[in-house]
């Protein structure tokens, strides 16, 4: 049963500013909780739930997390890492970065992934509110185009689908042109 599960993504890339000074030199995932790093508790729970594969999307001090958990063998898991690189990318960037470097045919649904990235991009990667707003916006665009394409007579279903995708894409381009950082953009604290 566990072979069919998708890999679980742990988002571990944030600066953890609300936990400072604890996280000045240690990433949030490695903060000690009851004698173990926080991520160790997550990994134990995931294994107990039947998960076998985990992707840690890491940014700030991510190398320290990789040193601590390794390949996951100690937890009975296979753990891969996706690093933001020199610039923190936010939630959508971490997930996108992982999928452009790891695409398994049995676990990759391109259209759903594209919709998720579009929702996060349109909403803004600053916090969870942006993801929710982006998802609502995307659903609004998807549903409104379903009705709009009904006004176009003589199109075959495949053509209607293409028109819908075009209208959704054009609407998102307008939103991102108007608000390049998304509707709720990321706010990086000044040092």
Helix and strand layout, with pairings?
Blueprint: E1 8-12, E2 32-33, E3 36-37, H1 38-48, E4 53-58, H2 62-69, E5 78-83, H3 90-101, H4 110-123, H5 128-148, H6 157-178
Parallel strand pairs: 1-4, 4-5
Antiparallel strand pairs: 2-3
Helix pairs in contact: 3-4, 4-5, 5-6
Give me the CATH architecture of the largest domain, please.
Answer: Alpha-Beta Complex
N-to-C SSE series?
A: EEEHEHEHHHH
Question: Helical element count?
Answer: 6
Radius of gyration: 20 Å
- Total number of distinct structural domains: 2
Classification by helices and strands: mainly alpha
Instruction: Tell me the CATH topology of the largest domain.
Output: Spore Coat Polysaccharide Biosynthesis Protein SpsA, Chain A
In total, how many beta strands?
5
Strand order of the largest sheet: 1-4-5
Describe the structure in your own words.
Helix content is 46%, strand content 11%. The relative contact order is 0.11. It has two domains: 2-101, Alpha-Beta Complex (Spore Coat Polysaccharide Biosynthesis Protein SpsA, Chain A), CATH 3.90.550; 110-178, no CATH class. It has 191 residues and is mostly helical. The longest helix has 22 residues, at 157-178. The protein is built from six helices and five strands.
